Amino acid sequence: MMHSYGFRKFKNHLFFIICAICVIIAIIPLASILFEVTKNGAPQLSLTFLTGTNANGGIGPAIQGTLILIGLTSAIGIPIGILSGIYLSEFGNNKYAQNLRTINNIITQFPSIIIGITVYGILVLALGSFSALAGAIALAFILIPIVTRTTEESLKLVPNNIREASLALGAHNWRTTLNVVLPTAKNGLLTGTLLAVARIAGETAPLIMTIMGNRYFFQGLNQPLAALPLEIWKDALQPYPDVQARGWGAALILILIVLIVNIVVRIATRSKMKT
Amino acid sequence: MKSPNKQQQIQKTTKSKVTGDNIFKILTTIIATSALIILLITGYTLVKGSIPVVQNFGVNFFFGQQWNPVEGREIYGILPYILGTLTTSGVALLIGVPLSLGIAIFLVEMAPKSLRVPISYIIELLAAVPSVIYGLWGLRVLRGWMVTYIETPLSKYLGWIPIFSGNPQGLDIFTAGVILAIMIIPTIASLSKEVLTAVPNSIREGAYSIGATKWEVTKRWVLSYGKSGIFAAIILGLGRAIGETMAVTMLIGNATGPSAMPTSLFQSGQTMASLIANGFTEATAGSLKYSTYLGVGLTLLIMSLVINVGAHLIMTRVFKVKGGAIEQ
């Protein structure tokens, strides 16, 4: 504080520049990732690449596998997550719900690989083989707590007088929740759920010990399954340039799925908030 | 004719009102218990699975360095991987925290309004990129940058310092730490942003009114007002770094045994998560090796629990909200 005003002003400018540099440094990796994935991945794209098996130079099974996993996981995880969220938000004013909320926050932070070995221990061993089902359950374990929390938060934003209005019209509690509260909160719900699904689409670690990977297309729920993240991982570690190129192509598809969902959701919610 | 019908109807609805609501409440209660079930299943599987290895080696499981899977002479000590996890996360924090704070301060205190939203979006997109793509990019791009621009000069001029000793080849603890730093930036930056936004403007106005510059206001008043919140943000970033698997697995070089002890930054290492990702599927269920991996998993889980619960407690106090209304 004893320094001259000029020096203090200089420090102030320096500080501004340093903070701006921090932002630039953080943006560089994202820009580089998008650039490299596009540069190396785009030349791979072709019909055979999207639909053929590895033997034909394609990643069809991996794309199919990821879509199947997304579908199965959503079918298991989203209803459970939303109903849990409804409980926490609509009936959550007690000790039990308070504890569940804390537990839910804790399992949201579990390292995903831990979920992988757990599902291996309870399901893969019991079924005797790696399977699409085990993969979907592992991903659902990750999805459920996120959807629960999103649901709870979106429902809490619904003003109470909307609930009261519905009850005053003679609607039952459960009708009020399903037909009035849920539709009111649907934007928040949709956003949160889509982002959560985009996140599990890119999860890799739990897939290693649940679906294992497969060179062929889907063969049944109790059989190993291919998936984009696994394809990228395995291809990246191979020394052959054409296999590595395939990995870049797979990375491009995966990042397109994830980023498009993210960007669309954010733009949609932004324009909603403005109005 | 009509009235009994109507009465019946009313009776029916009153009846179904009671049962419908109860059923709905009971149904959601049961389903909400799924969180508890996931927690119990995970805890049970890991604890039960790691009992054999802990019984076999006792404390040496946690403090041993040997890794010998040859049957009959099996020895498993996981100290190198515990330390590997702590070292990579430490490097990640050293690099990631200043950057994240710079970003948060820029967004809250300095950036023109028109830049704030786009920059926050970009930082949040960093969090959306899947871990395996960070790994791929790290392997093909970051590794080259690290070797050429950072590790070679460091080892040339500072090679006499033990942590910079060895021959830089890019697949090492340092590169893994750097990729982790990039991955935890969105967590720490966006939480710190929330914390700084929550600092009341009256504090800033008071400081400006006595003639402080923006830097002085931020350093002396805003940061100190928000320091426990920022601390919690950092801890949550640490929690993310500790459990991160794929990118680290692809970049850390995957050493095992005493050579995995993190003595230099330019040396192959191994974290607990990468150890599991690399070897878990090769272990036969019921074997000592399998139990070892579950033991590693349990250790990792406990570390991450302690960190996250700690951060959660601080956060709850800072924002004075009930459990988890603040999301990263």
Biggest beta sheet summary of chain A: none
Q: Do you know the CATH architecture of the domain at 59-227 in chain A?
A: Orthogonal Bundle
Q: What's the CATH architecture of chain B?
A: Orthogonal Bundle
How many angstroms does the end-to-end distance of chain B come to?
Answer: 63 Å
Order of helices and strands of chain A: HHHHHHHHHHHH
| Topology, number of strands of chain A | 0
Average pLDDT of chain A, rounded to a whole number, is 92
User: Which class of chain B in CATH terms?
Assistant: Mainly Alpha
How confident overall, as mean pLDDT of chain B?
88
Low-confidence stretches of chain A: none
Radius of gyration computed on alpha carbons of chain A: 23 Å
Query: Unreliable segments of chain B (pLDDT under 50, ≥5 consecutive)?
Result: 6-11, 321-328
Based on Cα principal axes, name the global outline of chain B: globular
Instruction: Output the CATH topology of chain B.
Output: MetI-like fold
Explained architecture:
The complex is a heterodimer of chains A (275) and B (328). Chain A is an all-alpha fold and 275 residues long. Chain A has a domain at 59-227: MetI-like (MetI-like fold), CATH 1.10.3720.10. Chain A has helices spanning 5-41, 47-51, 60-90, 95-108, 112-127, 132-156, 160-168, 173-184, 186-201, 205-208, 228-236, 241-274. In chain A, helix 1 (5-41) crosses helix 12 and helix 4 crosses helix 6. Chain A is globular and about 65 Å long. The mean pLDDT of chain A is 92. With 328 residues, chain B is mostly helical. Chain B has one domain: MetI-like fold, CATH 1.10.3720. Chain B has a two-stranded antiparallel sheet with strand order 1-2. In chain B, a hairpin with a 6-residue loop joins strand 1 and strand 2. The longest helix of chain B is centred in the N-terminal third of the chain and has 32 residues, at 79-110. Chain B is globular. The interface between A and B is large, with 98 and 91 residues.
Concise description?
With 275 residues, chain A is an all-alpha fold. Helices cover 77% and strands 0% of the residues of chain A. Chain A is built from twelve helices and no strands.
